[in-house]
Amino acid sequence: MATLGDIGVAATINILTAFAFFLAFAILRIQPVNDRVYFPKWYLKGLRSSPLHGGALVSKFVNVDFRSYVRFLSWMPAALRMPEPELIDHAGLDSAVYLRIYLIGLKIFVPIASLAFAVMVPVNWTNTTLKRSNLIYSNIDMLSISNIPTGSRRFWTHLVMAYAFTFWTCYVLKREYEIVAAMRLHFLASEQRRPDQFTVLVRNVPPDPDESVSELVEHFFLVNHPEHYLTHQVVYNANKLSELVNKKKKLQNWLDFYELKYSRHPSRKPSLKTGFLGLWGNRVDAIDFYISKIDRLTREINLERDKILSNSKSVMPAAFVSFKTRWAAAVCAQTQQTRNPTLWLTEWAPEPRDVYWDNLAIPYVSLAIRRLIIAVAYFFLTFFFMIPIAFVQSLANIEGIEKAVPFLKPIIEVKVIKSFIQGFLPGIALKIFLIFLPDILMLMSKFEGFVSRSSLERRSATRYYIFQFINVFLGSIITGTAFQQLDNFMHQSANDIPKTIGVSIPMKATFFITYIMVDGWAGVAGEILRLKPLIIYHLKNFFLVKTEKDREEAMDPGTLGFNTGEPQIQLYFLLGLVYAVVTPFLLPFIIIFFVLAFVVYRHQIINVYNQEYESAAAFWPDVHGRIITALIVSQLLLMGLLSTKEAAQSTPLLITLPILTIWFHRFCKGCYEPAFVRNPLQEAMMKDTLERAREPNFNLKSFLQNAYIHPVFKGVEDDESDPAVEEFEEEPVLIPTKRKSRTNTPLPSKYSGSSSP
Amino acid sequence: MATLGDIGVAATINILTAFAFFLAFAILRIQPVNDRVYFPKWYLKGLRSSPLHGGALVSKFVNVDFRSYVRFLSWMPAALRMPEPELIDHAGLDSAVYLRIYLIGLKIFVPIASLAFAVMVPVNWTNTTLKRSNLIYSNIDMLSISNIPTGSRRFWTHLVMAYAFTFWTCYVLKREYEIVAAMRLHFLASEQRRPDQFTVLVRNVPPDPDESVSELVEHFFLVNHPEHYLTHQVVYNANKLSELVNKKKKLQNWLDFYELKYSRHPSRKPSLKTGFLGLWGNRVDAIDFYISKIDRLTREINLERDKILSNSKSVMPAAFVSFKTRWAAAVCAQTQQTRNPTLWLTEWAPEPRDVYWDNLAIPYVSLAIRRLIIAVAYFFLTFFFMIPIAFVQSLANIEGIEKAVPFLKPIIEVKVIKSFIQGFLPGIALKIFLIFLPDILMLMSKFEGFVSRSSLERRSATRYYIFQFINVFLGSIITGTAFQQLDNFMHQSANDIPKTIGVSIPMKATFFITYIMVDGWAGVAGEILRLKPLIIYHLKNFFLVKTEKDREEAMDPGTLGFNTGEPQIQLYFLLGLVYAVVTPFLLPFIIIFFVLAFVVYRHQIINVYNQEYESAAAFWPDVHGRIITALIVSQLLLMGLLSTKEAAQSTPLLITLPILTIWFHRFCKGCYEPAFVRNPLQEAMMKDTLERAREPNFNLKSFLQNAYIHPVFKGVEDDESDPAVEEFEEEPVLIPTKRKSRTNTPLPSKYSGSSSP
Predict the structure, then answer these.
(1) Where on the tree of life does the source sit, at the highest rank (chains A, B) (predicted)?
(2) Are A637 and A474 in contact (CB under 8 A)?
């Protein structure tokens, strides 16, 4: 058992680590050479350009303004300064609402912690149960519920506190749900005209022997939504075309590279060998070679495109149908079209960026089967993932390797290598699995057939949370694999399960405190350092970057990562709520995590992450639901714990808590969830009327015509007209010594987190 | 343990009882004096009139045509002869689909029973486990799974059978869901123009300081559904008026009685005393007295009606809004109107007859709280209902009574009375509770705030089923009160619960066989006898009936009673599915029940029951869901049973069964449930177009104007113009000897179940 001193040492170490990360970040971020790693968002917005273009040679790579080193934590207030409305404008509602999750953490736990320290710590501390017992205990246990004698009347304090904490949490949750729902509706209402406001995604268009899908869709909606139907866009199966376009892009890039080379050294015409990797074969003129190759590919692409557009087989039985008014789109998205509810399924179209094109054509029965398969697969993944890993681990020991590849024996027997294998290999299989887990879960969601990237991420987040709950939370409390736990639970009564877990809860407090410090504090501080993107960017920059476009692509802004980030936060909610009554000493550590994470992620959202889609905070019901789950788990565990403490009179009072909480959840669901699922007609009508009055002659049809074209077609058509691409084509040179025109563009927001020199 | 012989005796007794009931029914139904008890449906339809008007004096009361006694089972083929479409026309879709539940029972259990007897009975019979053991066993157990030695390979048969039965049940269920959904859609589509097709019920209209509810509703829908809104009807709080109208009806009845008396004996003017129950007070002229009283009440009613119509406070925040087309109504019913999902709630309006007026004005928050209260109350009702009953029982013993009322002691000590009290009183409390249970459950549903009578009945049925499942099914298998069971289950592991129940299953087979014979066979045969309505009708006829209208009211056709009938059928499904693999010997008894019940209820639906509303088979998802539940319960119990038989290798195979079943349920839910909840736009549009073409000038507004008026207002206005009432006013005389004009009207359907002389 760790004492207060031990915790202090661990805290010091972790605080120092976090501090070191922050220091490293402060130094690295103000170096111009790292500018694209730490401020990619501004580059993507086109509001900042490479600092490499101007200034003296040294100051282009290294910051020589020493004053800027002094203010090394200046990014923190800067990150907090941008007001929420501007943040929504800058990074989207998703990001702004995501940050509110951390705020909720603070809103819930700061009052709870104050109350707990004011009331419960004295109540726990002034007992002598542990002193008189022969158990080994630490000072922290003195502060926890363990220090109270069994059957004591003092448990009434904990009971009252459990009620107080529940009510406070529910109050905060309800208020927050209300605010977020209002934010979402306001965001949707105040937005500019967007194609998805007028568009509905129709799936499972039934096959028709006489009509093409396009004709069928048009006729169906002309008949069933006359006066409202405007236009539609069928969905093509463009996987092959997509491949070709990517290939062309690569070749174009090589062409750019050689043209650049030629323009730098006009004396030597670049050439290359046509064989494998350019190592052998005929030597030809590189520029001509690529021009001819691109020409051929362009023709091929045009052919393929024509084929797709003309061949009725490449049309998938799905379409984006647009209406004349928002009202009509809202009506169509919320109603059932035909008597067969598995055909002509309509739903609100996701944002064009948010569409996951591959899944648009899955028929209903297949969807149902896929869901079953994934449910079973996920069950096995969660409970039996240790089996293959244990198998790999058993293979990856010294004897196993020696047996499999006997000729490696002399090498393996070298002491350094042997100890490396012994110490490292068994763990690496698990590590690799855990690193790839989010991707595996994402693959599962993709297979399941969701049609928008936001819903893919939401589903993956749910799965990741359950995995963490079972394997991290329960796995740490009751040691053993998930399967062993499952087996235990199957053989225990419904009464005993909360007891078993509840009893172990106080004993694991110090473990979780350490976990919070390592995973939470140091992890968050590491997030801001972006070590991996930093290294990869510089490696790419050194070895691979040929053109400005390459540099653009080497810059990896990353995203918020809802599917991994949110479950991590939820684990802290779970720990906080479970330990609030049991060991309140844990709460300050969680509060520090929330503060730190809030600042760091606010900074990252402002300066780094690239928003790939906008779901208008559609994830909030999930967040709310998981905090409610944590609350219920905490109540059940407290019930289990108290029932072993012979405080049986508390059971009926404790049982009402989860019932009230579940009822509260259903109440909130009824009150606020529709705002995230359906679209109120009144709002749509209001916007329609306003717009008709303002722009009576707006040509909506042309506005919507190409909104939902597969990105590949767009790529083909717009490749040369894309404004971002154009900008780079205007100045494709990368010779810093020759031109001196542009320095850093001044930053547009006075609140932005940048403090580059 | 009952042997085959015992079962045979019990069967003989029950068959004889059923036979006696049928015989009594056959004799009683052809007596003209009972005509209104056994053919009330035809009276209500106006297709049959009292046989008392014609023929000789004797033949008016007793059937003297002895040939009709010979064909005493002739009603059975007659009941089966009416084809389903005509039945739907005659008794509504609800009744026709209700009968399909019995048909499903036959479709499921006849093939299962054949297969079980062909395969499993030989497999079970050819063992000697029971013979070699020292256990007491019966011949029936020789046929059951108990006869197979533990760890035997023969359990594979049961495993395969479990799969076969599951797949067959699911197949039948899916087909039936499909058929019923199609029937419902066809019924809704082929129906004549009905007000509820165009109307939406709007609840939770927010209060507005400037506008009345009526204005507010009109403005809201004119703005948000322009081009579609037609008219609306606000809902009045008319409870007081309703009371007054009922009072007036009673007085009117007395007036009729005295007028009749006077016309029979014109010499003596009827008079009465004005005091309590007419026992003392001034003697006045009865006719004058009632005329003046009715006059006063009529004025009061008019006043009250005007008050309600003029006072804005009596308008409830709810309205029935009608649209110009079915399409618009379908759109409005399926969409969310405003950003606050707890206001302006729209839903498909129930049929006018189906509206439960009292619940229309409950606000959203109150609804949520009511639901919580009822959930808790229902839990206590189900698990703790024995506590008050045991308390009453403890009071109702000899010593208790003697203590409470010592002066009764000499009477109680009389032997006959004493044994009566001892044998009868303790049981009577439970019996009374069980008789009132459906009413209690109905009250709960009413309190919960459902707005249609069909949904009230559906919810009550669900609750009754759960009660029966816990207290009858589980209560018989594991003896003990529900609370003791709950306590047991809480202290048992999830693994052990199916085992505990599963092990007892084979031992209870004979008990359930007896139960099926008593409750099922004799009970159903008793249903057709209608002993209670028969007795009550004749009592009323003898003592109370003053006018023809009274006689009309004394006739109690009853209804199908979905809230009690359906849960009873479901109990048989549960028994059949649970015992199909364990003791197939039980299946024939269930099949006989289904056959008998099908014929009896078909007869009753054709000739007796009065259909009070039409929900277009909206209850089918519930029926389907409960059969699925029974299937899953049977699978879990089989798993528990087999795991005690050391057939552990079967567990993984058995676990997949419930998973597949749950998946199948969700699949069916997705495929067919929307047909019962939502309204497809295509259908609505088709009907609209057709109707526009056929009757372009139909005045829909006047058609809908008064459709959703509170029945009390209708009563006041239409009282004198109601065709049924008019008919009785034309011949209000009840003197059989004076007129001789009418005999029984010939029955309109050649398939009708009647075979009256």
Answers:
(1) Eukaryota
(2) no
- Write out chain A residues lying below 8 Å of B666, CB-based: 368
Do residue B342 and residue A372 have CB atoms under 8 angstroms apart? no
Find chain A residues with C-beta within 8 A of B383's C-beta. none
Nearest to A335 among B225, B335, B365 (CB): B335
Instruction: Round to whole Å and give the CA distance between A530 and A557.
Output: 10
Quickly count: other Cβ atoms within 10 Å of residue A427's Cβ: 11
Query: For B674, which of A341, A492, A495 is closest by C-beta distance?
Result: A341
B494–chain A nearest CA distance, Å: 5
- pLDDT of B23-49, one tens digit each? 888 777 777 777 777 777 777 777 666
- Residue B400, SS3 per DSSP: helix
Average pLDDT of span B156-175: 91
Q: Could you give the CA distance from residue A319 to residue A322 in angstroms, rounded to a whole number?
A: 10
* In contact, B548 and B52? CB cutoff 8 Å: no
Tell me the backbone φ, ψ of residue A694, rounded to 5 degrees.
-80, -50
Beta-carbon separation of A678 and B492 below 8 A: no
pLDDT digits (tens, 9 = 90+) for B69-107: 666 667 777 777 888 888 888 888 888 999 999 999 999
Residue A423 has pLDDT above 70, yes or no: no
Chain B residue numbers touching A342 (CB-CB < 8 A): 670-671
pLDDT tens-digit map of B590-630: 999 999 899 888 888 888 888 778 888 889 999 999 999 99
Can you read off the two tokens belonging to residue A140?
Answer: 């922290």
Count CB-CB contacts under 10 A for residue A55. 17
Show residues of chain B in contact with A365, CB under 8 Å. 667
Which residues lie across from A28 on neighbouring strands?
A: none
Q: What is the dihedral of CA B340, B342, B343, B345, to 10 degrees?
A: 120
Subunit contact B341:A492, Cβ cutoff 8 A? no
Distance, in Å, from the CA atom of A121 to the CA atom of A674, rounded to the nearest integer, reads 42
**Position with higher pLDDT, B264 vs A739:** B264
Closest alpha carbon to B103 in B601, B651, B737 = B601
* Alpha-carbon torsion angle B724, B725, B726, B730, nearest 10: 110
Closest residue in A to B341 (Cα) is: A671
* CB distance A270 to A258 below 8 Å: yes
Q: For residue A659, list chain B residues with Cβ-Cβ distance below 8 A.
A: 372, 376
CA angle B706–B94–A336, rounded 5-degree value: 75
CB–CB of B341 and A674 under 8 A?
yes
Contact: A681, B368; criterion CB under 8 Å: no
Going by the DSSP 8-state scheme, the letter that residue A756 receives in this structure is -
Exposure string over B456-477, b if 16+ CB within 10 A, otherwise e: bbbbbbbbbbbbbbbbbbbbeb
Chain B interface, best mutation among A340, A344, A483, by max B CB count within 10 A? A340
Which residues are paired to A203 by β-bridges? A345
Cα separation, A489 vs A437, whole angstroms: 25
H helix intervals, B523-561: 523-529, 531-543, 548-554
pLDDT value at residue A746 = 39
Contact at CB, A670 and B330, closer than 8 angstroms: no
CB contact under 8 A, A491 and B490: no
Give the SS3 label for residue B549: helix
Q: B331: which chain A residues are within 8 Å (Cβ-Cβ)?
A: 331, 335
Helix (H) or strand (E) holding B604: helix B587-607
Question: Which runs of consecutive H residues, i.e. helices, occur in A337-414?
Answer: 364-384, 386-395, 398-404, 409-412
Pairing of strands A199-203, A345-348: antiparallel
Residue to test with chain B: of A229, A487, A492, A682, most B Cβ within 10 A:
A682
| Chain A hits for B668, Cβ within 8 Å | none
